Amino acid sequence: xxxxxxxxxxxxxxxxxxxxxxxxxxxxxxxxxxxxxxxxxxxxxxxxxxxxxxxxxxxxxxxxxxxxxxxxxxxxxxxxxxxxxxxxxxxxxxxxxxxxxxxxxxxxxxxxxxxxxxxxxxxxxxxxxxxxxxxxxxxxxxxxxxxxxxxxxxxxxxxxxxxxxxxxxxxxxxxxxxxxxxxxxxxxxxxxxxxxxxxxx
Length: 201
Known about the structure:
This protein is mainly beta and 201 residues long. It has 4 helices and 14 strands. A hairpin with a 2-residue loop joins strand 11 and strand 12.
């Protein structure tokens, strides 16, 4: 099968994000200048650089009460900081509860019953019991082609790792089993791993 996106795919559901899979989930927490906290998951998320460490996520829809974007991007525009919380399988239902299009005054931490902690280097909340958290300072927001498509880039200025996930000096993802997004309404979980040596090693 071949299709041109501009012509449509003719299938019951869009296969695009089912092809690019699995995708890590960036559970983005923010605090507006008015003190309102927000928490929302984004599956267009990844690490993009080592030195300095940098991450990105993309928001691809808008809410009426935020104009051209969603709460996360609006608050990051406002304050210049955000936190990425890593999602473990055990928190799948809580993560899903924060994915709704809630009114801007809703604190998703409270809505989903998630314990909140304060970041160390930025004025922002974080998921207290997440396996890891990246405290980030905004470097740039890039408007992408298409309505409401924004890529947000940030430099990681603080890293939290849950003590039980650090084993023999390494961050062991099998201690918490990362949740990943697939296509449609599907998710997957990391429960095994293997290593490959690069050529010449």
